[in-house]
Amino acid sequence: MNNRFNRRTAAPLAVAISFGLFACTPTITPTLNTQHAMHSNQPMQQKFVSDKVVTSDCGPIFIAPDVPGFAIPNGAEARDMPPPIAEMQAVGAGRELLPTDYDRVSSGYMLIEPVATKQSFLINNEKEVVATFEGDYYRGYTQILPNGNQLATNYVRAELFVRGGGANGCVEEISVEGDLLWRLNLNTDEYVSHHDVIKLENGNILALIWEMTTAEEAISLGRNPENVAEDGTFWWDSIIEVNPYTFEVVWEWSSKHHLIQDFDATKPNYGVVADHPGRMDINKFYQFISPDIPAEWAHTNAMDYHPELDQIVISSNYLGEIWVIDHSTTPRESITSSGGRYGKGGEFLYRWGNPVNYDRGTDEDRIIFYQHDVQWIQPGLPGAGNILIFNNGHPVLRPYSTVVEFTPDMNADGTYNLTENESYGPEELVWEYNPDPSEQFYSWFISGAQRQPNGNTLINHGANSNVREVTSDGEIVWDYSFRNGADGPHMLFRVYRFAPDHPGIVSLLENN
């Protein structure tokens, strides 16, 4: 159903206390088509031109700041793990690994990318490394495409965005023979790519980005002045689509165009929040560990693409919510509330997980907490079309992690149901992995899950670099931990298992 299964990211969330980045507004440049102008009474169309600059030079190697107490890259400074982090790390960390149940484990090869190394490792079910890859940069997350090429994110972050966990700034494609095919520098003083990228069937790249603006601009749009970052910045969560060969931004969506607020009647976007579920309340925000107000407002950390519906699902870590938007819009329509296949422009088609964000629920209605790795389950797999999420939890509100699967309340045409004054459904989950205390775990950041062909689910406890495969009944049939002799625990942003006959895996093994 989507290209997710030819892709997945390994960009780490450096610290759960991230800050932000901001605004670039698209411009429209008039272009004259003289033949059209002479033979048509229709108004001339203007070509969309983004103001985001994209180049092919990602610059020198950047060493990502470490998370205190974790394994660190060469050249980074070691720092002790603060007590609150150490306490969170302890949940489930001391459990002994269980033996492999070869009769029930899903076959294939797993790609792992420890954050503190420049290497990626392909391992088999016997936990043996069968191939090793290394690029020019410290990688965030690598996806193996069907032809064996590697789609990778790299750390080249500007200091401006260094506090945004998961920011990387560079995307590249490497051929199965190891040749660089193209490289995109998505790292400027105005914006940076982070966490997730997707390669579309047309060859273009979707990238999550943060856009930098000022706190003054956010206040002018209705943000409470008491709730802005001390550094005077504010970050919008956005997506761009880039042609990797021409460096042209051909489509973009930004949260800054879809706001609602009930704080200041003299400012734009004023209205009743509950009457506008397709928009973001600019005054809703949550704090994780730090008491500081983050400039990074929503911290989107994952996305997935559904080609049949032409929809994108996005995970907002800080807001405890997922959003679905329409990718079929034109760039002009994406900044409005109309147009596109579903007639809503760039507004949310659907949202789920925390209805208090649009004033149609309470804190008790919240289902997901600081989640990662949202995805539609791929066609042909058990649960196809459902949404799967790694539900990280919270050190106070819910100090353990789970994996949740649910069926969106969607119609056959890709529209979603919403009853007046109610929140988006469903209320009930299709499946949840919530193990007993003896196998309970807590990954306070990063992590993910992937449905397997046999109905099992591969689960990445990323904050302790542990991976387990569980049955639908929650039994662990494969248990793995990456240590590699480091003093501190490694981090695994995501892991992904590929079938033995995956054409990209076959090609890579033949060429490695």
Question: What does this protein structure show overall?
Answer:
The protein has 512 residues and is mainly beta. The chain has a single domain (3-74, 108-511), classed as TolB, C-terminal domain (Neuraminidase, 6 Propeller), CATH 2.120.10. Helix content is 5%, strand content 29%. It contains four helices and 28 strands. Strands 5-4-3-28 form a four-stranded antiparallel sheet, covered by helices on one side. It has a four-stranded antiparallel sheet with strand order 6-7-8-9, with no helix packed on it. Strands 10-11-12-13 form a four-stranded antiparallel sheet. A hairpin with a 5-residue loop joins strand 26 (466-470) and strand 27. The two termini are 29 Å apart. 51% of the residues are buried.
Task: Describe how the helices and strands are arranged.
Layout: E1 27-30, H1 34-39, E2 46-49, H2 83-89, E3 109-112, E4 119-123, E5 129-134, E6 139-144, E7 150-155, E8 169-174, E9 180-185, E10 191-199, E11 205-214, H3 215-220, E12 233-243, E13 248-254, E14 259-260, E15 280-281, E16 300-306, E17 311-316, E18 321-326, E19 350-352, E20 372-376, E21 387-391, E22 402-406, E23 431-433, E24 448-451, E25 457-461, E26 466-470, E27 476-481, E28 496-498, H4 503-511
Parallel strand pairs: 14-15
Antiparallel strand pairs: 1-2, 3-4, 3-28, 4-5, 6-7, 7-8, 8-9, 10-11, 11-12, 12-13, 16-17, 17-18, 18-19, 20-21, 21-22, 22-23, 24-25, 25-26, 26-27
